[in-house]
Every structure is written in C-alpha cells, then in structure tokens.
Amino acid sequence: QSALTQPASVSGSPGQSITISCTGTSGDVGGYNYVSWYQQHPGKAPKLMIYDVTKRPSGVSNRFSGSKSGNTASLTISGLQADDEADYYCCSFAGSTTVFGGGTKLTVL
Amino acid sequence: QLQLQESGPGLVKPSETLSLTCTVSGGSISSSSYYWGWIRQPPGKGLEWIGSIYYSGSTYYNPSLKSRVIISVDTSKNQFSLKLSSVTAADTAVYYCTRHGGGLSRNFDYWGQGTLVTVSS
C-alpha cells in the first residue's frame, strides 16, 4: 500500500483537461510544499513534470500544472494529446523519508 | 547533457547482497547543489525511494529499508553505489539511479535507464 493515494485511472479526449489527485497527510503533502509529479511511458524511466507543487522544469509543456489544497495535491493536464497517455506518479517529502503515490494510468480516448 | 547509467548483476540469490553502481557522465557528482539517489519499481507496481547521498558521503535512507541498505560515493570515479543485503523475492525490481536538488525538494530531474534485478535461486 502506497503512502500517497492516487486514482488508479483517469481518461479524457484529445483537447480536454484532466486532473489527477494525490492525497496524503499532514506529515507529507499537507505539511510541506515539496510535491513533485512524474510521467512514465511503458518501459521508460520516469520524467519530472512538476516539482515544489507548482514549478515546471525547463522543457516541460505549460499544459502541465500543479496545485495543492490541504493534504491533497493535484496535477492538471490541459489540451490533452495522444502522447500524454502514460502513468503518472506523485511524490512528497515526508520528514524522515520520501513517499510516492501508487500511480495513475491516464488514457487518452 | 548529464547522463546516469546503472550497472550490476541482473540476478541475485535470496539472502545474498544486491550491488549496483551508477556512473555519472556529463557533469560532476561533486556538485554542491545536488544529491544522488536510488529508486526502485517492482514489475507492474509503483515507485519506492531507497535512499540518497551527498558527494561528501552524507546519507539518508528509507526507514523501511534502512537496516539493509548502504549507499556510498566514489568522487574519483564519478560514481555512487547501492548495496542491499539479505534480499528476497520482494526486492525484485527495476532499480533507477537519480539526481535531485538539495534541501527538501524532491525534484528527481535526471534518471538512469533502469536495470532489472531479479532475486531468484
């Protein structure tokens, strides 16, 4: 069982927007502004998409955005594209450790 | 362009020690701005942080694995290594070496391609 809770799957049509939630506790997501999000295509290493809740690394499309409210962080992808179909993982600093969510499979219909 | 590459045995026997090395190229492991870490992913499952090290040798580990893990660094070779002792089938996973920023940020911005380690007799 993962420390952070994500929906197992989400889906959307090209051009639409989707949001993936990541729920933790006051000991991780809620207690620090150090949530990151990763995209993973099959057979590939994860790729950093968002860090420190809202920051986007250089080269990542501005269609990807992050936010947080209380113990829940969210990743929003706007203008869905076929290549966005992948697994997405959230991650948070948690004091003495670092925790990940169980992952969400995004399907682009 | 920074590159990380894992190396080590792909098959380890139960109760033995898993040993992996990550070679960093295109940048110095001695940069004061970054930590170097290991993350694993069992087949078909999610990600698990194992631990991280600073070039000075300062380490911190996942409490659930701490009793079995040692991460070390060799700045002369621009490498860092993972040792996981007393392995079982539950340790079968793809192991990734990564880089993340200093402080509390968990921005794992560079990853190796990953190496599958299977624990089996």
Q: Can you offer a commentary on this structure?
A:
The complex is a heterodimer of chains A (109) and B (121). In chain A, a hairpin with a 6-residue loop joins strand 3 and strand 4. The relative contact order of chain A is 0.35. The N and C termini of chain A lie far apart (29 Å). By secondary structure, chain A is mainly β. In chain A, the strands form 2 sheets. In chain A, strands 1, 3, 4, 7, 8 and 9 form a 6-stranded mixed beta sheet that branches. Chain A has a 3-stranded antiparallel beta sheet with strand order 2-6-5, with no helix packed on it. Chain A is globular and about 40 Å long. Chain B is mainly beta. In chain B, the strands form 2 sheets. In chain B, strands 2, 4, 5, 6, 9, 10 and 11 form a 7-stranded mixed beta sheet that branches. Chain B has a 4-stranded antiparallel beta sheet with strand order 1-3-8-7, with no helix packed on it. The radius of gyration of chain B is 14 Å and the shape is globular. The mean pLDDT of chain B is 95. At the A-B interface, strand 3, strand 7 and strand 8 of A face strand 10 of B.
Summarize the biggest pleated sheet of chain B.
7 strands, mixed
Low-confidence stretches of chain B: none
> Based on CA inertia axes, which overall geometry of chain A fits?
globular
User: Strand-and-helix sequence of chain A, N→C?
Assistant: EEEEEEEEE
Q: What does the overall shape of chain B look like?
A: globular
